[in-house]
Design brief:
Layout: E1 2-5, H1 19-23, E2 39-40, H2 42-54, H3 83-92, E3 97-98, H4 99-110, E4 134-139, H5 147-153, E5 163-168, H6 175-178, H7 187-194
Parallel strand pairs: 1-4, 4-5
Antiparallel strand pairs: 2-3
């Protein structure tokens, strides 16, 4: 059984989805110094931003105050995630990313589908070859992988004859990973499919 989340076509209509705008800056990864870097050290970048942000007068006494801003609502529904988890997500989970992965991601958004590095193979074209039983999860408040677009672009193209898609109401993009209350949000549907 395969468990799927997200949308390989990366299309969206949600106003909070800034991926297409951000992907337009993908060309910057082809200029120096990024062309020479194998990895972009996200941790150093986020730590320096966080330290600078903490010096601003309106942040109060909260350390790592940037983690609590509503700008992260594209990634999770703030009402589902405890402050300590927001802080840990920003401070401890961002490590680094390879430059080629970021290039592939930007290219995938620009072309409405993740493609191989040489752009010869589009992942969307091969979804029909996935035949194992599948369980696709979408989240109603996810601006990065909207349920309807995920159904149209990914789920409907999967070749499996034994597939189920569930939309978790009130969930954002990463909520089920960040909130223990949502860990079992699709447990019953998954269990029923396994029977």
């Amino acid at each position: 059984m395969g468990l799927l989340t997200g949308n390989v076509a990366m299309t969206a209509t949600h106003k909070k989805n800034m991926l297409r705008t951000l992907s337009s800056f993908g060309f910057l990864l082809d200029i120096l110094p990024f062309k020479l870097l194998d990895r972009i050290p996200a941790e150093s970048f986020t730590q320096s931003i966080s330290a600078a942000f903490d010096l601003l007068p309106f942040t109060g006494t909260k350390k790592n105050a940037i983690a609590y801003l509503p700008l992260w609502s594209f990634l999770y529904n703030p009402s589902n995630v405890m402050d300590e988890v927001k802080n840990a997500l920003f401070k401890k989970t961002l490590d680094s990313s390879t430059t080629p992965i970021l290039r592939q991601f930007a290219d995938g958004i620009a072309h409405s589908c993740i493609r191989t590095k040489n752009s010869l193979v589009s992942y969307c074209d091969y979804l029909k070859n996935i035949k194992l039983p599948l369980f696709q999860v979408a989240f109603s408040l996810d601006p990065l992988a909207e349920p309807l677009k995920t159904f149209e672009d990914s789920f409907s193209r999967l070749g499996s004859s034994h597939k189920t898609m569930v939309t978790v109401e009130g969930g954002g993009h990463e909520d089920f990973l960040l909130s223990s209350e949502l860990h079992g949000s699709f447990y019953h549907e998954l269990l029923e499919l396994l029977r």
